[in-house]
Amino acid sequence: MGDDHRVVVVTGGSRGIGRAACEAFAAGGDTVVVASRKADACSALAAELTGRYGTPALGVGCHVGRWADCDALVETVLDTYGRVDVLVNNAGMSPLYGSLTEVTEELFDKVLAVNLRGAYRLGARCGELMAAAGGGSIVNVSSVAAVVPDPGELPYALAKAGLNALTVGLARAYAPTVRVNTVMPGPVRTDIATHWTAEFRDRVAAQVPAGRVGEAGEVVGAIRYLTGPDAGFTTGATIKVDGGMAWST
């Protein structure tokens, strides 16, 4: 499959890594579907992408933690463009909490739903469609938390570990024509980073061998590689973009 004029769906697409991915795909000539909970933000970015790059783009409101929303997103993309060539499961959340016993059932279920359940449903739906159409690529955006779980984000870490397993399962289910891979970022400078405390920044600098946080574009570079022709023999893989953090403890 070539790298031009594909239909690319990005969840969590209106902010952070997702937004940077949408911009990169549009700049490369792809048709981009921006999906997130905030429909207005998605539509605004889609209009911006079309205006800047001249490529078709569509904004769709979708709460990926809800099965029905995932199905509706797939149907909207099919009705509009007739196919899905690339899916980037990027939507995620990690709310703050106190002690582990203070984690409520509601918080736990919400984190698992947004980070894992939605990726499962969208991966299964889009993987099946891609296989029937003769090919496609799925990238799941995980986190080093999956392999270096911190007590302060344990439900998130559990969900991301599940996402890593999902990658392998989907890769085997929809082989040989559909490739499914994981990008596993470490701390990345996005809009969320504006809320990082000085203590957290110092801790990151100490934990990451690269001595800094990553940039969204560095993660997007890995996503672009995995969805492009140079990664034609890569499936079921996990690529760390973490400055060496996962091996530093």
TrEMBL record:
What is any Pfam family matched here? adh_short_C2
Name the family.
Answer: Belongs to the short-chain dehydrogenases/reductases (SDR) family.
Q: Which UniProt keywords apply?
A: Oxidoreductase
Query: EC annotation?
Result: 1.1.1.47
Task: Output the SMART domains linked to this UniProt entry.
Answer: PKS_KR (SM00822)
Which NCBIfam families does the record associate with it? PRK07231.1 (NF005559)
GO molecular function ontology, one term from the record: glucose 1-dehydrogenase [NAD(P)+] activity
**Domain Ketoreductase, chain residue ranges per copy:** 6-191
Protein name stated in the entry: Glucose 1-dehydrogenase
Keyword flag Oxidoreductase: yes
Give the matching InterPro entries: KR_dom (IPR057326), NAD(P)-bd_dom_sf (IPR036291), SDR_fam (IPR002347)
Report the domain of life of the source organism: Bacteria
User: Oxidoreductase among the record's keywords?
Assistant: yes
